[in-house]
Specification:
Keywords: Signal. This is Lipoprotein. With 222 residues, the chain is an alpha+beta fold. The protein has one domain. Helices cover 23% and strands 18% of the residues. It has six helices and ten strands, in the order H-E-E-E-E-H-E-E-E-H-E-E-H-H-H-E. The strands form three sheets. Strands 4-3-2-1-5-10 form a six-stranded antiparallel sheet. Strands 6-7 form a two-stranded antiparallel ribbon. Strand 3 and strand 4 form a beta hairpin. Helix 3 packs across helix 4. The N terminus is likely disordered.
Length: 222
Amino acid sequence: MKAYISVRPSYLALMAALLLNVPAHAQWRRPPTVPMQVGANPVSAADIVGRDLDMIGLGGVGHVGIWTGNLVIEALNTSGNAINTNSLFDFKSRTRYWGAVFVDGLEKMPSQRMCTDASCSYLVALGMKEAIIQNALVIKQIGADYTVADGYISALPACSPPACASYRRPVRGLYRCNKFVVDAFAPLSNVNLELWNVMSRTNRPSMLFSSFNERGVVLQPK
């Protein structure tokens, strides 16, 4: 079993971190789902899954993770490493499940050359969805701490010459759940910076979730 940190972030700290309300420019305005409706399961790797935040009175702030194709990878307030992989059943069982959303067109984007581990031993060419998942897994391998603040520190693999002027040790990350998702999607910024900026400008999990296309919800004509 995972060793969860016993002291949760305080209400005041979390509320202070969420004071700024920067609107996201959604790809499209999804129709409102039926209140309390159980959302659809993820369908494809790099879908974003969401649920209520596990904190009384702040459930609507939300919590998000990334579907790898068989597991959810997410940032949690856990000891040792904030980046966790859990089953979809585990993710859905903790609080009210919202469903899954997807960023349209990822499968049509150019492949990306990605580090495969924290040492960046070699690069592999991966499709965009696979690159996002690989990036999330490398972040997990490097390790990260949890924060309630909106800012984050990107986990970075080691780097050696000639890629870097001198050897750089891996840099440990610092994330809240939504900023971990944003950073995992960083390969998207190489081909569609505007779309990635939509993600990065969101300052809470619920805003990130509602910025993209929801699985199981039919797009209504504009």
